[in-house]
Amino acid sequence: MHRTLADDLSRLPELLQSARDFAAREVAGLDARPVAHLGGPPDAEPLPADGVGAEGALARFAERWAPGFSASAGPRYLGFVTGGATPAALTGDWLTGAYDQNSAGGGDSTATALERETLSWLRELFGLGDDHSGAFVTGATVSNTVGLAIAREWLGERLGVSVSEEGAGALGPVDILSGSPHSSVPKALSVLGIGRGRLRTVPLLPGGREAVDVARLDAELEALDGRPAVVVANAGTVNTVDFDDLRAIAALKERHDFWLHVDAAFGGFAALSPSYAHLVDGLDAADSVCVDLHKWLNVPYDAAVQFTRRRDLQVRVFHNASPYLGAPTGEPDFVHLTPENSRRLRALPAWFSLAAYGRAGHREIVERNIALARRLGDGIADVPGLRLLAPVRLNVVCFTLEGDAGRERVHALGRAVAGSGEAFVTPTVFEGTHALRAAFSNWRTSEADTDRVLAAVRRAAGATDS
User: Fold this and answer.
1) pTM for the structure as a whole
2) What parts of the sequence cross the membrane (predicted)?
3) Cα 81 from Cα 357, distance rounded (Å)
């Protein structure tokens, strides 16, 4: 064994303690560090010839790289839809690395059984029935891709061809219909060989809504004259967290032949709150469902789940035909359900957080975040020079500048907020207007944090207009 590696092995407990102490200081200092780092990276260094050991590597990281990392795990990072890591989830994530289980298959570990238990808990959390089976994947993009890959195989089944054997070209032109699809959907269609151009957007409800007009969707499906299609419904759009009427869309199946995929990346968590669960009424009727976990479940990157009613088609798409991996019979191993062969035990941080805080703890996070989003929205509505672009429906505040809200001015406002070190929000475009969006999904965020964000936005707006 290499001398430095052997030395690290002999000192492993104290090295882990050093890493623990460093991580604890970093987490404890989240409030003090700038929420975003806008400076450049350090100069690149050549690959070390011999290395400096784990302790030396930790010291070099602390000096060169740690200062430039954002406080994305903290309470005032409101960019994208980014959660943090609950204490229990972080514990599970550390143990994931320590155990280093390859959860692709069973036979030598109970890790796959733990993943199945976690999936069962999540299925219950989101109100899905036992006929939905699932698997962990890296994020919403892969979850949407897996769901649409199963939908592609279903289209082949309806047309009498096997896409997994003959390729996507055997389908001919495919019809994908959606009102406000997330950008990951056309990306998935590109990867799957269906093509971005096959996605057709259906008109939305009037009045600044991002929800699909179900009557117009009905007409679009009718015009297909019985040809099977895929409908991508949204349970929480990124700009205004609008929800399609899932129950009404599912009812269209009585007259039309289509696969219903629901992108519930973060909006699915509305199911946890009695006040908002009606927004995802009908989710159980979906043929496939995407839910992201490193958003509102607050587990570390990267973790999401996908669910489907047609595990048989999922196995047909993803099975790995190799003698050493076994056949996908009975309860198939996860190697036969997702694009990955080797895969880390992403379920463990989620299992820890669900076991630690249960439904009630995660419901509290969701409801607190919603209340804080409304608090920020009310505050922004009172700031001269700013205006809300949509009501705060759940956990996202979408706002812009009064007057000429062009890209340059709006992006300058976002940079000024980030430059303050107090908060981070991301730019977007809503109904042709450049805007900023603040997304609340972190388990730590408080009223005091929200007030600090509002103060930073107010100062930046004043500086932008001056």
Assistant:
1) 0.96
2) none
3) 21
